[in-house]
Predict the structure of Aminotransferase.
Amino acid sequence: MPTLAKSLSNTINKKINEIPKSEIRAFSNKISQIPGIIKLTVGEPDLQTPERIKRAAIEDIKNDDSHYAPEAGKKEYLNAVSDYLKDSLDVYYNPADEICATVGVTAALNVALMSVLNPGDKVIVPTPVWGVYFGIIKMAGGIPIEVETSEDNFILTADHLKRVMNNEGKGAKAIVITDPSNPTGRVYDKEELEQMAKVITDYNLFALSDEIYAELTYNDKKHYSLAQIIPERTILLSGLSKSFAMTGWRIGYIAGPAEIMKTVVKVSSFLITSVTDNVQIAAAKALEDGEQDYEEARAIYEKRLHIIQTGLEKNGFTMATPEGAFYIFAKIPEHFGSDDVAFATDLANKAKVGVVPGSYFGEGGEGYVRLSYASSEEHLRTAVDRITDYVQDFLNK
């Protein structure tokens, strides 16, 4: 087994070494060692990829579609993305030069930020947020500016954004918005996005809009996009991992104005050459007639949301009303204190329920925990029972 030459050990990329690993993954892996634990940690659907999507990939493999795809993506997939965005958002992106296939949305974020940022550029990041954003921004040479949103029920208001742009965010290049939100499940309404769009325009920002959970909104909440309001400034990032239960397929896309997409395609081609052929064909099939798939998934998740939300509220947890994605961001009851890492660790060890400490999602997450309800009803009901017993045992001490 080789050992790195000592003369090379201090020459490794220092910028990358200074970026910590995902705390969410590390915590989830750690508590996975607890026998019998129910993990509500990682945001991965327990649903299966629909059969018609699997068949499309299998047929494409049988047809020997096994050569390099075009750098931006296969025509079938790009056309399907274009049609899908036109149908769902009424925004048209030309598949010839305004869309790029990516290896999931994580890769899309890397590509988009590398395309936009120069070294030292600031990026506005409303928090709490998926913690991977911070590392991706730093890898691209940027400086993340955290904007804590708990004071406004986990929605970044236009007034708050304006204050930030006049202070610590002065001169920022871009803003990253996740809508629906991970971890809070909050969804921006049309008026909120319109007000935010005005500030984004006034301060000459790029808007990177991560819409991976766009199809999963509840309680009649409708998804809107900054791309509908300021398409000339918006780089839309999305994919099929969540709505079509395709996390392992690693397929996403970037859509934006042709001028920036030239750079996007160039960066993507240097990083991955091209996205896997049969995955693109399967994703095209998913988007072409997939409304029933994500409507069925949405109904399942909405029922699960009710189970976990009701159970938590009965035990003294409070939360911003979850309206999308498949997460609840719950405030720990006061009698447990505010150390979310200690609480989540104790809950895992004593109640055998795995949740993610809220502080892992940036400023404003302290004292909260995130629970994913992308798990079976049986697991969720058992988790609620275990949490109930844990809370009662604590109160009866």
Q: What stands out?
A: The radius of gyration is 21 Å. The chain has a mean pLDDT of 96.
